[in-house]
Design brief:
The protein is built from 9 helices and 8 strands. With 236 residues, it is an alpha/beta fold. β6 and β7 form a beta hairpin.
Length: 236
């Protein structure tokens, strides 16, 4: 979605599989003065001070506003709704994640959505299934969320691997106190407990595909384009 604060003049644009929901909820709580993490499930809300997008509402239960402010909205739609003048005068915020880690997470998330049990596989089988996924799936790079007219349109980036550090810095930039108790982790997948390192999923071919499809995120997050280097970068 987009979370828009008129008081603090920022727009949060939520990318996929990057802890975006956790950060969105943190920022919502910060803006509303909540004393505890806000609910992950919510209808869209729009007031003079704040716009909150719909989260986790089933299609049958959605209200008209849920169809206007919704999950993972492209920057172009948000700009059109807010107007060019507001868009130009507000700071934009998003989350990023090492794409090698992001795509492995997306692979397991997709399997969970299909109802596949999160069982450990042999390294060879896991790599083969992952290779088929990368070569055959249209997994989103979120570039439509963060780019306008082919250019990166974000002022502040929060990295998945340095979530608390970057949120602390962001709060300082917004002139707000950093309250770590408002940060909650949602939508965690179970695959990490099997202890398979991220780089073990990759072949030179799949590494090249991910570098091509997610090039912008490597650049703005300062990530190495070698999957072998990810152990030094990923801590989530």
């Amino acid at each position: 979605m987009a979370l828009v604060s008129h008081d603090h003049k920022f727009i949060f644009l939520k990318t996929a599989k990057t802890a975006g929901t956790s950060v969105e909820m943190f920022l919502e709580a910060m803006c509303t003065g909540a004393q505890a993490p806000v609910s992950e499930r919510t209808h869209a809300r729009e007031t003079e001070r704040l716009i909150v997008g719909m989260r986790l509402v089933e299609k049958a239960d959605r209200i008209p506003l849920d169809k206007i402010w919704y999950n993972h909205m492209p920057a172009s739609e948000i700009r059109n709704l807010l107007g060019q003048r507001t868009w130009d005068s507000y700071r934009t915020i998003t989350t990023v994640r090492n794409p090698f880690d992001l795509v492995v997470s997306r692979f397991h998330w997709t399997a969970e959505r299909r109802g596949d049990p999160p069982l450990p596989r042999s390294p060879e089988r896991q790599r083969a299934e992952f290779t088929d996924f990368v070569k055959g799936s249209a997994f989103p790079s979120s570039a439509d969320i963060t780019h306008l007219d082919g250019a990166f349109a974000i002022h502040h980036v929060v990295r998945f691997e340095h979530l608390r550090e970057d949120l602390h810095k962001l709060c300082g930039n917004l002139g707000r106190p950093y309250e770590p108790a408002l940060l909650t982790h949602v939508k965690a997948t179970a695959w990490r407990r099997f202890g398979v390192p991220v780089h073990a999923y990759y072949t030179p071919e799949t590494e090249e595909i991910v570098c091509k499809e997610h090039g912008w995120m490597f650049d703005c997050g300062g990530y190495s384009r070698s999957a072998q280097d990810i152990a030094a970068e990923v801590c989530g």
